[in-house]
Write a structure and sequence with these properties.
7% strand, 370 residues, 2 domains, five-stranded mixed sheet, alpha/beta, Transcription Regulator spoIIAA, single chain
Length: 370
């Protein structure tokens, strides 16, 4: 049965001695520690008698040391061996000082950070090459033997990543076309060239916005979804189980998603149609340019060439989105925090890659005068 901690201060052959009774533990300490600090003066040459004390834990030992103001020498403690050892160790622990963390000079810290960043970038580049090489090998095997492809998985991913994305792709591109038409109508009205708003909308939507906006939406939906699905499987060691059973995770997980995004390239066409429709509605409402005039002027002044230029970027962006999402999923560790970081990285890297690819294509077509 637990007994409340208590004490008395008496004169003994050791001098002024604190005689402890009861259990000096966290549960039974109560206000004994406070009363002890009030009863003695810190720094007094006191002795402690713990032979009549019951249980003594770290809380009780720390209370005795704090009341004394300093660690009690073992020679001034009368206690059982285990209790004496505990009080001595707690006293030694109270004397330990937290080592000061030396902060290097800012220039050294900057160089160290740059070095770590460079090494990390090189490692990331090397691992990306390895992933892409493995993926190319799997794609090559699938071309030579199409029966290796899990077509059921490809169709399932195509439905979720492509067909289910049609509403958001159409609505977003519709409003992008509408905003572009508003800007064109407002700017060209100052020069009396409102009729050229049709060309502005056509060039902008067909050549750039339709493919870029569609790719960004797929990056947000598909790249994060791929990373989360594969990452969750890796956390549950399902991918390790596949390897044990002789199944290549790239064939079972990566290749179907890679092919599925290639198959949903026609989403770019739907985005372009929605963007043109949004622009036509705005120009009809603001400049009274009829839809018939809009439809006639697009093929005459813009032409299908701009549509094919925009569509040529779509397969490259689709491949990059699939590769980034699957690779980040493969890099997930064994905890939820790692999964969250990789899902976020998949979206950020995919969107950054889309913008960079679009810029590269723009430079190429500029040099080709297309």
């Amino acid at each position: 049965m637990n007994k409340p901690a208590d004490f008395t201060v008496a004169e003994t052959e050791r001098g002024r001695t604190v005689i402890c009774t009861g259990d000096w533990s966290a549960l039974c300490l109560g206000d004994a520690a406070q009363r002890l600090r009030q009863a003695i003066e810190p720094g007094d040459n006191l002795s402690f008698d713990l032979m009549k004390a019951g249980r003594v834990d770290t809380a009780g030992a720390l209370a005795l040391i704090e009341a004394n103001g300093q660690p009690v020498p073992p020679s001034r403690i009368n206690a059982r061996p285990e209790t004496l050892r505990l009080v001595t160790r707690i006293g030694e622990a109270t004397q330990l000082k937290t080592p000061e963390i030396h902060k290097p000079w800012s220039w050294n810290a900057l160089m160290e950070r740059l070095g770590r960043g460079l090494i990390g970038a090189l490692k990331e580049f090397y691992e990306t090459l390895g992933f892409n090489g493995h993926l190319l090998v799997v794609v090559g095997r699938a071309i030579l033997n199409p029966r290796r492809v899990r077509w059921a998985s490809v169709i399932n991913v195509t439905e979720h990543a492509g067909i289910d994305a049609i509403p958001i792709v159409v609505i977003t591109n519709f409003f992008i076309g509408a905003v572009l038409a508003f800007l064109a109508a407002g700017m060209l009205a100052d020069f009396g060239a409102q009729v050229f708003s049709v060309e502005t909308v056509g060039f902008g939507v067909l050549r750039e916005f339709a493919v870029v906006i569609t790719a960004v939406l797929l990056a947000g939906r598909s790249a994060s979804s791929f990373a989360a699905e594969i990452g969750a499987m890796k956390m549950q060691q399902e991918i390790d189980a596949m390897r044990v059973m002789g199944v290549d995770p790239f064939e079972a997980l990566v290749l179907p998603r890679f092919l599925a995004l290639l198959f949903i390239v026609p989403l770019t066409f739907l985005g372009a149609v929605a963007g043109l429709f949004g622009g036509a509605v705005v120009l009809w409402a603001t400049l009274d340019l009829s839809p018939v005039f809009f439809i006639q002027r697009i093929p005459e002044s813009v032409g299908l060439e701009q549509f094919w230029i925009g569509l040529s970027k779509a397969p490259v962006m689709a491949v990059v989105i699939a590769a980034i999402g699957c690779r980040q999923g493969m890099l997930v560790g064994g905890d939820v925090e790692s999964l969250g970081k990789r899902v976020t990285a998949a979206v950020v890297h995919a969107i950054f890659s889309i913008i960079m690819i679009d810029a590269v294509f723009a430079l190429i077509y500029l040099k080709l005068d297309i």
